[in-house]
Amino acid sequence: MSSRHLARTIALQTLFEWDFKNKPKDKLPEFIDYNYQEFVTKTSDQSFTKKIVTGVIKNIKKIDGYITKYAPEWPLDQITNVDRNILRIGIYELVFDKDIPSKVAINEAIEIAKTFGGESSGKFVNGVLGSIFKDLGEMEKSEDKEKAVKDEKEKPKTSSK
């Protein structure tokens, strides 16, 4: 398992506990420390996990707004705690973290959903994040910009005589 995938998994476990215990923001560092002690066999850098958790919490209202908009058949409180927090991480990385490529954000969220969610969690997460990506179009992310430039260079040139 890659270190970033593991960090996302720890972020999910942390946000799950935070959500389950009525969202005590002051307990987040304690939850992260505990999850690293329990689930990581060697000393690991917690900075990526902390970045995700902090980013989700900082943008929680906007992120939950995306969930509400793109999963209208599912009221936020009726989405399982696991799926809700996977979506929060995926939306944070897709929309708010300019350093995470869009496809990586989506694929990681889907893989985590398949591992920790229910039978249809992967499809649900894919549908929501795919719709957000489609509506947002090209984003201000490094790989998205590079792809846009590459696509533009590869377009056939037509002469206008």
Describe the structure.
- The chain has 161 residues and is mostly helical.
- It has one domain: N-utilizing Substance Protein B Homolog, Chain A (Orthogonal Bundle).
- The protein has helices spanning 3-20, 28-39, 47-58, 60-70, 81-96, 102-116, 121-136, 142-154.
- Helix 1 crosses helix 5 and helix 6 runs antiparallel to helix 7 (121-136).
- It is globular.
- The protein starts with a helix and ends in a 7-residue tail after the last helix.
- By CATH's scheme, which homologous superfamily applies? NusB-like
Q: Would you report the number of β strands? A: 0
The end-to-end distance, rounded to whole angstroms, is: 56 Å
- What fraction of the residues are assigned to beta strands by DSSP? under 5%
- Please give the CATH architecture: Orthogonal Bundle
Offer a few descriptive terms.
mainly alpha, single chain, 8 helices, 70% helix, globular, N-utilizing Substance Protein B Homolog, Chain A
Describe how the helices and strands are arranged.
Blueprint: H1 3-20, H2 28-39, H3 47-58, H4 60-70, H5 81-96, H6 102-116, H7 121-136, H8 142-154
What's the gist of this structure?
The chain has a single domain (3-146), classed as Orthogonal Bundle (N-utilizing Substance Protein B Homolog, Chain A). Helix content is 70%, strand content 0%.
